[in-house]
Amino acid sequence: MQKKRNFSIIAHIDHGKSTLADRLIELAGTVDDRRFHDQFLDSMDIEQERGITIKSNTVTLNYRASDGLNYELNLIDTPGHVDFSYEVSRALASCEGVLLLVDASQGVEAQTLANLYMAMEHDLEIIPVINKIDLPAADIDGAREQIEQELGLDSLDAVLCSAKEGRGINEVLEAVVQRIPAPSGSVQAPLRALLFDANYDPYRGVIISVRVFDGTLKPGDTIRFMQGGTVHKVEELGGFLPERVPGKALAAGDVGYVIAGVKSVRGVNVGDTITHEHRPAQAPVPGFVKARPVVFSSIYPISTDDFPELADALEKYQLNDAALIYERDSSAALGQGFRCGFLGLLHLEIFQERLEREFGQALVMTAPSVRYRIALNDGSTITVDNPQYFPDPTLIDHVLEPIIKASIIFPSRYMGAVTKLCLERRGMQTGYHYPTTNRIELGMELPLAEVIYDFYDRLKSVSQGYGSFDYEFHGYQRANVVKLDILVNGEKVDALSLIVHRDRARPRAVQICKKLKDVLPRQQFKVAIQGAIGGKIIARSTLNALRKDVTAKCYGGDISRKRKLLERQARGKKRMKMVGKVEIPQRAFVAVLKTNDG
After folding, report:
1. Are 20 and 76 contained in the same domain?
2. What is the pTM of this model?
3. How far apart, in whole angstroms, are the C-alpha atoms of residue 38 and residue 149?
4. Are 354 and 472 part of one and the same domain?
5. Mean pLDDT across the stretch 421-427?
């Protein structure tokens, strides 16, 4: 136990977590040069392509320290983006200490602070590491000052390194060995192992990642999930080096994997505690706080026959992404589907891409929305996250929308541009202060609905990439929001309905009507595409009919002959319009979703 260390790397996005993990793996000689590649722990294609970490990944490093002893270091790499903070909280529950990375050129940023507070909540040992000291713009003294002032940590304890060039990596590992405490727990006590991640293998079933707090686990043991209640027999267990390597046992303090023939994903809950069936533990390990989704969207299979496959894919996907929450949903236009909750728009985007790549699912997604509280005239209050269930305006007394408290850190020269962006999004400034002479931290209260689309991208644009953003849920406040319906040929299309602020309703309706006019196939009759709030039409586009020239056979003669033919054609078109039904293709839904900059 004294030779084991469990630690995590936490930082703001793009401060060099994955690069530092690469250097630690190289120095420990865990992977040979032939198999090694950059971003080694980012195993998904999508992580490699985007250059971001999405999933926490575990690797065991065998390190010979300066005291001549060999240590087993379990490293859990974590994501930096605010949308994946739930992954970070799960990784921290399995550690005794963290390396808190600070970019020497950018200093302490919003997510650095958020991750620090999360580590403090778990009562972990925090080692500040100043990375990227090789950059020409590196300001080491400035970074030390921010560590003192903003993080409240001793800057003299900070380790200097350049993960890119491999400088200072030995010092980082020495700090892990000397300053992070060995795991506590008893090998003789009843087994308590925290299930902190899982994924599905079609041949082996559910593969569980665990951190053992007490006891010992061996192949052949009968185990029980304390929350799920299911009982299984351990077939194989071992460590991550970084691929799965079978072992003889997992003892207190170890991090590893367990395969126990779990074929059904229903009884497996991330955050559950595993114990022995014959000698159970008295109480489970404290799990994780349930993820609180802030963005909601409905997903539907492109072919209704694929619904059972989508349901199966979602069950397996949720094992690997415990922050996803979903329930059954249906739409008149798109059939059976699911209403899903996400931690942010990037989370939603990654979810859609992973379902398509890993499970071969072709999906249609409705426009993202947030959860509103609606006070009705009869005194009751309902919660709505789906425009389909937004009540009639005559029944509503008032609507409350979710508000976030945002912390935005950026160089002070961008103050005007960032403030303007926030005010455009109906933000209200709550204060600001200067952590250092040329950087400013701006406090803002913003409606969540205004943030979920492209706020982060716009912030990066107006601050030339230097702006950082972190937020927490603040509460609800009154808002003048309405349900915007889209009508095609007089019929509401429920999958295109939106809940928007009244001031934004008309521009958004005009935009959707124009887009639909471009993508809908023309009919034999004129089709009206309208945007409406209640019974009031606020925007319209007209899709012209496919016409046949019925007067082509008339050569010369009286004008009344031509008029008679045109009038007969008009009567036929009118009858056709009354009984005609406009089929909306799937690409129309996708095209409308892409017009989210209104």
Report:
1. yes
2. 0.71
3. 34
4. no
5. 89
